[in-house]
């Protein structure tokens, strides 16, 4: 399976949000709090303001398999399609965030998402904080990565 990394294009909004919601729901075992339409609005009008949004697409161009939203200091969203996890897509997206960073990145992940914790720790992130300042009211973990 060949994956292409592209800059976000709004024509992929529906597919992107569908994949994002399914991946997040599986990871935290909680249904989305906002409507699908609100999620599309967030992607197209809010997330893009302070983040570079990148998609991983099957080479055919017909399936969104991952999303990365980041800036030079933060990975704000990183999700991979549930059926494509474990194939290196998350690594490719995370490495892109590292390359675009200023040598230091932060991110949050939910404490219930053990799979994400293992992934980030394998990729050089270390825990620097904990809390629950999120709309899901779940405990979360703040991670930091510093360029070696």
TrEMBL record:
PROSITE patterns in UniProt: GNAT (PS51186)
N-acetyltransferase domain residues: 3-148
Pfam family, one: Acetyltransf_1
Entry keyword annotation includes ATP-binding: no
Molecular function GO terms recorded: acyltransferase activity, transferring groups other than amino-acyl groups
Keyword vocabulary terms for this entry: Transferase
Transmembrane segments annotated in the record for this chain: none
Matching PANTHER family: L-AMINO ACID N-ACETYLTRANSFERASE
Protein name per the record: GNAT family acetyltransferase
Organism of origin: Paenibacillus graminis
Taxonomy of the source species: Bacteria, Bacillati, Bacillota, Bacilli, Bacillales
């Amino acid at each position: 399976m060949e994956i292409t990394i592209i800059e976000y294009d709004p024509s992929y909004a529906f597919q992107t949000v569908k994949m994002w919601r399914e991946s997040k729901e599986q990871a935290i075992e909680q249904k989305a709090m906002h409507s699908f339409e609100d999620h599309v609005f967030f992607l197209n009008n809010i997330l893009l303001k302070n983040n570079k949004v990148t998609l991983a697409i099957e080479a055919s161009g017909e399936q969104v398999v991952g999303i990365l939203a980041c800036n030079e200091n933060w990975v704000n969203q990183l999700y991979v399609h549930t059926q494509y996890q474990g194939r290196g897509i998350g690594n490719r997206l995370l490495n892109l965030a590292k390359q675009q960073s200023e040598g230091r990145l932060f991110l949050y992940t939910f404490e219930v998402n053990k799979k994400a914790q293992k992934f980030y720790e394998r990729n050089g992130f270390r825990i620097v904080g904990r809390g629950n300042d999120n709309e899901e009211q779940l405990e979360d973990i703040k991670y930091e990565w510093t360029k070696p």
